[in-house]
Amino acid sequence: MKDVNSYGWKAVIGSSVGYAMDGFDLLILGFMLTLISGDLGLSTGQAGSLVTWTLIGAVLGGFVLVPYRINMAVFAS
Question: What is the pTM of this model?
């Protein structure tokens, strides 16, 4: 721990905050799902489908956008 400089600590703190915020949208969706379902008139199955498609979208977005960003970083350097 003594060998970590201030830049290393900033990286650890930044990545920890990013990791915590990554799942925040799903946390809020879980809390608000009852209100969202009532407002939109969704059945229980439709509400479950909304959460499922949200997760699928996050996974597919990661698979599509991560290689794109890696290519951008490689060509930028």
Answer: 0.61
